[in-house]
Amino acid sequence: MMTTLDFVLPPELEASEPPPARDGVRLLVASGEGMKHARFGQLGEFLAPGDLVVVNTSATLAAAADGSWAGAPVEVHFSAELDDGSWVVEVRPAGAAAGPVTGLRPGEVITLDAGAGATLVVDGPQPAGQARLWRARPRIDGGVQAFLARHGRPIRYAYVPRSWPLAQYQTVFAREPGSAEMPSAGRPFTAEVITDLITRGVAVAPIVLHTGVSSQEAGEPPQPERFRVPEATARLVNSTRQAGGRVIAVGTTVTRALESAADAADGMVRGRHGWTGLVLGPARPARVVTGLVTGWHAPGASHLALLAAVAGPALVDRAYAEAVRMGYRWHEFGDSCLLLP
Q1: Bridge partner residues of 272 (DSSP)
Q2: How far apart are CA 313 and CA 65, in angstroms?
Q3: Are residues 240 and 253 located together in one domain of the fold?
């Protein structure tokens, strides 16, 4: 049987451009009752009054910028701003590169457009387990986010052959800029979908988690990410669980934030903020999240362990096998899955 650790993703299933209608993408509903096929606009039909849908309100940065290193053109991906003002970055060869620049050394300078620069230093541990990420100290008047707003573009990988405007990489919930890449599980939501949920008695609540770059090597853990779970959302999560409703996380980002805010002793969610390095998996199953709206993740991605921590490996394996069999589309512009263990 295919498992989410070893499945092969046919290239034709990689979504290469935005769909005509956000809520028109396909939705696979995977539960103990089997597999159902629908469109995302029908999401509310599979939820119940008293359920709670939790969304991520982080907005996507135009986090890719052109530069040069040692006379060669490069592309710098700004992944996360650290507390001391430095940034975690990935430096890639210009063009449709499959991996990072090799040969970088501490203290070297990447020259960015408009005369800005970033000195790459390794003056502390690299983010947990990452081999391709560096800590950079930018020299940019006005700050990195202002520079990216003028000169940056959305991070794009080889399966998307042409560039798209930043608006295509924002969800309807986007309010607070900070994500290197779109929290893409929320992309198919529209005002109509949200209105339908509310009229069905399904509540919606926000968290913030700023995503880093997703270009880790297979098997590498996700890097630490900045998050905030508001007190009001924590109260809604706890009251939903106490009333017997389901807590449906929109994406791995929301799952990571909620589980990071859960008390180890009683599972109650508290209002919390800071950095989370939490990695969900067999040793740390989900305590709070009982359902998940998600996109489709590539073979070997660390997020697959998180899906299994919420829904169980057997259900996740069946869902992925069905998605491949039925030709669902992968990545940020692709189709969706609703896991209801």
Answers
A1: 229
A2: 38
A3: yes
